[in-house]
Amino acid sequence: MPDPALRTAIKNGEFILAPGVFEAISALLADREGFKALYVTGYGTVASALGLPDAGLATYSDMLGRISTICERTTTPVIADADTGYGGLLNVAHTVRGYEDAGVSAIQMEDQEFPKKCGHTPNRRVVPLEDMLRKIEVAADARRSDDFLIIARTDSRTGLGLDEAIKRGKAFAKAGADVVFVESPESEDEMKRICDEIDAPLFANMVNGGRTPLLSADRLKELGFSIGIHPALGFLAMGAALQKAYADLKANGETTDAIDLYDFGKFNDLVGFPAVWEFEKKYAQV
């Protein structure tokens, strides 16, 4: 079931800072830090699970399996990327129910044409506004709990301009979206205009190396955003750390002091070995 804490935090005007997670280890580590939400990134999940780009190649089933594991192993409310809803209106309804049953607290769906692409890459195209409004209506009707939030994203800024993106954002809110997400504004002034003109809780995407300026949580809240995600932080940090570690091993034939490793004992705790050892003490024959 969705966690009501996310809706309550937004209603109370709290700012929600959410790191991107993409598989169980990243989720377990982020869950310990006390964030108000975790964001399951489609880009990172597809790259981690399939080794492929975020270009509409992952299926609903590919994503749901990973998302279900993350929700099961964490206690923090989860916001999860659902791309375009994985198909037509019936698929949208099925996706909403599946994500909600998995324990997701907020689903993010966008107005791109299929196959979709990462929101900070070129050549994205969007569906007619009326088609996306229908998806929002279906998503709102399909959810079982009002604590399950619908985040509606428009990718129209890059191809059609900011005026169109704001127009769509306003329409999304009117259609029943709980949170509006205008993807990839290109300046702080554009971000301010989004907040000034759209009367709804708003979502900011802080992508390291992306099209949007990286602002602090305090500044995002000051502008008027309700949620700020850092979807790429985890997998970019992992990529840098693994590249350095593997290169060190190849160059030296062993791991040197140049590599900072997570303590093995603490990692055992992270993944739950103490519970296994307690079980063995109680039940296993020795």
Description:
This is Carboxyvinyl-carboxyphosphonate phosphorylmutase. InterPro entries: ICL/PEPM, Pyrv/PenolPyrv_kinase-like_dom, Pyrv_kinase-like_dom_sf. It holds the Pfam family PEP_mutase. One of its GO terms (molecular function) is oxo-acid-lyase activity. Strand 1, helix 2 and strand 2 form a beta-alpha-beta unit. The chain has one domain: Phosphoenolpyruvate-binding domains (TIM Barrel). The chain has 13 helices and 8 strands. It is of the alpha/beta class and 286 residues long. The chain is globular. The longest helix is centred in the C-terminal third of the chain and has 20 residues. It is 50% helix and 13% strand. The chain has an 8-stranded parallel barrel, surrounded by 9 helices.
